[in-house]
Amino acid sequence: MLRTVLSGLKARPARLLLSAVAIALGVAFVAGALVLSDAVSAGLRDAVAVHLRGADATITSTGHAELDEPLLAKVRKTPGVAAAEGRAFASAPLRDGTGRLQDAGAMAVPADEHLRPFDLAEGRFPSAANEIAMAIGAAADFRLGQSITVYDQNGVPHTFALVGTFRRPTDAGIGAPQLVLSPEGLRELGPRSGYGEIMVRAAGVSPAALVAELKKSVGGRGISVVTGKEAAGKLLGQAASDSARLTGFFTAFAALAMVVAALVIANSFTILLAQRARELALLRCVGAGRGQVFTSVLAEAAAVGLIASVLGLFGGLGVAAALQALTGGPESGVYLPLSTRTILAALAIGVLVTVLASAFPAWTATRIPPVAALRTQVEGKSARAGRPRAVLAIFLLLLGLGLGALALNAEVATGATLTVLATVALLTATVTAGPLLAGPVVRGLGALTAPLLGQSAKLAALNADRNPKRTAASAAALTLGLAVVSLVTTVTAGVQAGQSRGLDRQLGSDYVVTSVLSLQPLPTALANTLAAVPGVAAVAPRRSFNGNLGGHGAYSMTAVRGNALGTLLRPAVLSGRLDKIGPGELAISTQLAKETGLAVGDTVQAGPRTKPVPLKVIAVYDGVRVPGADLGLALVDLPQQSAIALDNTSHEDSLLLALAPGTSPDQVRPALDQAMTTAPLARLSGVPELKEQLAAPLRRTLDLLWALTALSVLIAFAGIANTLSLSVLERTRESALLRALGLSRAGLAGSLAVESVFVALFGAATGLLLGLAPAWLLTRVASTEAQPVLFTLPWDRLAVLLAAALLAAPLAALIPARRAARVSLTAGMAPS
């Protein structure tokens, strides 16, 4: 039987090629997900290694101890120290190539080149106070020798000459400044109270011995001294890595790709074994048992799966590299770690999925009677769906509808879970009902297109309708891929539309002014300056602070002028009233109400214990979540802030500006920009810009999802091409007979192209409709008053999906059509 399997593989390489392509693509996605997960960890380790480059020991402050110049001098005099560098960082906003103010981090270049956490890319590092070097990503809009304007903490501009660019890993943001200056240049940006850490390089002693000496000289009193290896372990443990989230995200799409590939493989082996009915029956005639036939088919599938999985494994490296290039910046490296886990998992999954997908066709092959070997031709049989399939499809449909009805009346978290279960039930019902729907649909498509396409449409409909199970299986792979992408695309469009509507409802101001530096207050006179601009009707400050709510603890709170509510700010009120807020009143968010149990009418003793301030809860709200207009966990009147704040720090986080009725924002904007020249660190954002800030992350996520789903759709079209290719081989005599009756080569090829379009249209339309139903359900479940999620159809993206499916379908049929058209009349009708 082993020789039989090997001979079969050698005799039928073309028939197994497209199945192998589907397996390889699916394994490439799985391997790419695993490689990408390891790449995140590798990039993080690389970032930590560069941050601690050359450091045999690190010194940090664990309390109130200060790492200052005297301490650094003492470190340098410690026995065993070859070099020691203090690292100081500062915020250094600068204007980018478009003129917008952007925050950036700056540090002084270490004198010891072995302790520099970056590599020179072009030019040189700064040596004078008026020179600067920039990271490659930040320097994209600048050229060497150009003057760069950087602002200090007080908004005073400083001009530096760009003398070089450098590279450094950006993963996790560890030790990754955008700007590097000389120590004198960094001091120009503001007084430096000390260093954040001190890096020490050893001279002829071990790291452990160096740490022991440093502990004797500077250790204790809130100063920690550890080896570079210990510091690296601590950073890796503390760093917020997205490895787990990315692994889950890509693994989900890898699973989708493998499900699609499994459908393609099962369909391919079903057709292959139907074509080999005589061969398998002949094996039975010469003494092969059913178990031997079953084992031989599985062995053939395992061999194909192994070869394709090896190719897919290396393809996964390309997938991981492409995704890193797509999502990374100009400085981000491409990491391609190939671990033993990845190799074993990719090969095991590829072989296992292939064997499982071929198990049922193999079992069916054992049912072929030996007498079939006596037939001169074994044509493909019409495979009609039976009553049990219809009963199962109806049951799954009712189950999905029932779960959806329960989701509409459940809490958000429970409703989301029920929605996922309902979606799975509907997907399964659709795949189960596919053979029941395929026949009527393709017959309808044939009737509609016959006046335009003539005999090609009629033949295509007859061929697709003759075996609706095969047609449905070919379309199912495309249905699954497009259902997922249409679901997420529609939900994302709904979230974006909901954010826009929520912003319009809850934010009554036309502009929001914020500081580029989050901890830097806006000038106190800026509110009056902007209020004096013609066309400005109102300016209201919004301040955030940490407030004490007595026995309930400390929380992040917001203070606004009482009459700004209902006009400049209109939060969604769930209970109580919030048209204004005054002294002695408190409004709380839904989150704080759940955490503390407070409700409208309750009184809180806020502020210090020695002088508590009674605050009465007047409303529970679901707050505005917009940069510069966030209401935090609790809201009080502006004069109330000083009485309940935990410290004396008070700054204006933002200003809310409303224009006079009938005033155009475009007319007032130049005057506002001119007025804000007195506050160079202030940023003016209109409502369209705020909407763009909210929408940009959604678009990036959606674009990445489309790139991922494209692979599963590619597998689906490989399945359509595979099915058509094998179907052409099965219908060789039929094709030859049609040619003998007068059908031209072009007509025969055209009928296959139209059949491919029918299958693609059936799968695409089913997938799109199947994705829209759960999307509607999810928008209803997830929508709240403050954060509405609208059911908005993204017509442009959905049209692109459908158009891509229809354009790709004839390409999938290109090779099968050429093969059918080239069949000789005499060879095709010869008995076999």
Automatic annotation (TrEMBL):
Where is the organism placed in the taxonomic lineage, from the top?
Bacteria, Bacillati, Actinomycetota, Actinomycetes, Pseudonocardiales
User: Which range is the signal sequence, renumbered to this chain?
Assistant: none
What protein name applies here?
Putative ABC transport system permease protein
Q: Which Pfam families match?
A: FtsX, MacB_PCD
Where in this chain does the record put each MacB-like periplasmic core domain? Answer: 17-216, 471-674
Kindly give the InterPro entries that the UniProt entry links to this protein: ABC3_permease_C (IPR003838), MacB_PCD (IPR025857), Macrolide_Exporter_MacB (IPR050250)
Its chief place of residence is membrane
Membrane-traversing stretches: 249-273, 293-323, 343-365, 390-410, 416-438, 475-495, 704-729, 750-778, 798-817
Q: Where in the cell is it found?
A: Cell membrane
